[in-house]
Each structure stands twice: as C-alpha cells, then as structure tokens.
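Handout, section B. The chain below has 232 residues.
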Amino acid sequence: MNKVILNGVTVATFKGAEDLLEFINNKKGILAAVNAEKILNRDPRIKDIINNGIGYIDGAGPLLAARRKGVYDAYKIAGCELWLKIIERFCHTRSFYLLGSTQSVVEETARKLQKDFPGIVIAGFHNGYLSTESQKKDVINDIRCKKPDIIFVAMGSPRQELLMAELQEIHPALYMGLGGSFDIYTGKAKRAPKWWIEHNLEFAYRLMKEPKRISRQIHLLRFAWMLVANKL
C-alpha cells in the first residue's frame, strides 16, 4: 500500500481489491471511496475524515492523478463491488450492520445477504432516514448495544461520511460508505454496463440515466483542468 496526496486528500493506493482486503484485516476506522468530487470538496470535515481513515481510489480521475504522481500500480476499486468482497472474506468471523436506503430495501438487502452468504451474522439494520435526533439516537443505541464489527452506511456523500465519523466516536469498528449500493444489490437500481465501466465512463452512463446529476458532475471539468495543469 502506498499513499498519494491529491489536493490535500490523502489517498491510499492498492494493487487491487485483495491487497486492500489484506490491509484492512483487524483494522478499525472509516473506509472511504475517493472520487473527483471528494477531492475537490471544500468542506474540511470531509478531508479530515478521509485523511484520518482509509481513502481508496473509486474513480478514473483519482486513478489518473495518482499515476501522474508516480504511483503506477494504483488500482481503481469499485465500492459497490468491494463491500461484497469484504463480506465474502469476513462473513464467518465478523458481524455486520446495515444502515441506509429505505426500510424495504435494507430489509431485502439483509435477506439477500443471508441467502448469498450462509452463516453471515447481521447484527442489525436500519433505514437511512434519520431526520430527527430521536431517530439518530435509536440507531446509536442499537449499534452500541449490538457492537457489530463492520458497519455499512449507504446514504450518499457527504452525509454518510459525517455520520460514520460521529458513530466511530461512539463505537469503534470498520465503517464503509456505500452510496446506493444496497439499491444496486437488490436490483432496485442498475449499474452501468461492463463496457462503460471498463472504459472509465461509468460517470457518463449515470449522467445519461440521471441528467439531474449534472450539477454534481460539473466538478469533473474543474478536476480535469487541475489534472492537466498539474494542480493536484
């Protein structure tokens, strides 16, 4: 594992998913997917969370930037695949907690995981609608009581990163932000076809399917300029 700093964000680079899985064995902390949007995020809290955790490359932009800085064996690892590899590796030795999405989706995710990974210990699950302090307190108490080893938080960025940092102070564990991975896993949402993924164009496919994402993806132009101008 090597590290590279991109616009003040410390990114851990791995040679592949197996390399990352070996690294996180018996570790606690926040596992955060790093893409161009997070590298350009101006909220110092997000940078601190990544810098104090384990930020891994989950985007073509950071991958190109890391290689330009001399880390030629850097590898892009898709978070929507990684969390299932983590479960596959640790399902017989660790307990898991699922937090995020709607109640029906998180329940279906738990059922599907129990079917796909016989023997898995799912300590608990909860939807991602924590709009009140009472709802958040219920989740905090549940996690504190059940003490899961690995907690997956599927809420989207930056909400999931901020919540994971808060929870980590209360219950140290391995946390991983998943965005919409529960929806993909249960078939409620579809990932880009293989060709788009292999050619690092998954962002373009998602934009075509969800034009409203343009307000979020406009940062890609700025990232590209900073990459070409060697400003990262």
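Note. The first strand starts at residue 2 and ends at 6. Compare this with the example in section A.
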